[in-house]
Amino acid sequence: MKAITTYFNFLGNTEDAMNFYKSVFGGEFTTLARFKDTPGSENMQPHERDKIMNITLTTKSGAVLMATDFLESMEQKVELGNNIHLVIHTDSEEEVDSLFKALSAGGKVEMPVNKTFWGAYFGMCEDKFGIKWMLNYTYPAAN
Question: CATH homologous superfamily of domain 3-138?
């Protein structure tokens, strides 16, 4: 396992929240993707296309905070317990599969592990204690 990071879910105010965290912790945004930049975005509600699909703040000390906007059109609601995930960054697809199987046992699968359009092998689950996890292996960049 490479690292565990924090992933926040907000209902439409991710940009404001992450700018606040940047003012508190310092650092730089190392990724920023809006829903309009994703496949199928032409089918989204126009007012949701500029919402944040993924943003990463890397602090001066190297800590990483990530976040997304939940979308009401997808019937997503921010509630106590679903407003934060722990992200496990792994060294391989096999490690994702192993950890995902163990963490989801007795819990529930939120998003089955699969290859993604953003170049990762990724899945989401909730363990039997109600903790939400994202498991991620980022494929090496093609040269």
Answer: 2,3-Dihydroxybiphenyl 1,2-Dioxygenase, domain 1 (3.10.180.10)
